Amino acid sequence: MSAENLVRFGVSVDKELFTEFERVITEKGYTNRSEAIRDLMRDFLLAEKLNQRGNDEVVGTITLIYNHHVRDLSDRLTALQHEYYRVIISSLHVHLDHEKCLEVLVVRGDFKTVQLISGRLLSIKGVLSGKLITSGVL
Ligand code: NI
After folding, report:
1. Pairing state of beta strands 100-110 and 88-95?
2. Separation of 100 CA from ligand 1 center, angstroms?
3. How far is the CA of 87 from the centre of ligand 1 (A)?
């Protein structure tokens, strides 16, 4: 980066957020806060770029953690996976403890559909957390 292409900017954040951010980037091995922020900006822009590829075919995973004791939850998750059997091409189930399950679904399809499936799964009551990771564009 040449000096003339460098932009400096100030950011106001609350102390708690700042302290936590500093702790995490140090743990991750960053020695330079600017580099951590640059990486976050690049990730954000990449995610946005992927978001605009609605009709492109992507491959990725949807990871879910849920409590299988929640009434009808397992049935609802299974029904949704059958509804999208052409896009959800594989799955892995791990019983984490007496209540919680982890599921990893491998998806392949147009990005809009993959996002829709992810959104529908994550919004089901009893799904504790989850994430869609788009690993590649075909
Ligand atoms: Ni289980």
Report:
1. antiparallel
2. 6
3. 22
DSSP-assigned letter for residue 94: E
Measured CA to CA, the distance from residue 20 to residue 73 in angstroms comes to 34
pLDDT tens-digit readout, 72-124: 999 999 999 999 999 999 999 999 999 999 999 999 999 999 999 999 999 99
Non-local CB neighbours of 115 within 8 Å, separated by 6+ positions = 132
- Cβ of 25: how many Cβ atoms within 10 Å? 18
Does this model's pTM top 0.85?
A: no
**What's the CA-to-centroid distance between 68 and ligand 1, angstroms?**
7
What is the CA(53)–ligand 1 centre distance, in A? Answer: 34
Per-residue pLDDT, 117: 96
Distance 135 CA to ligand 1 centre (A): 25
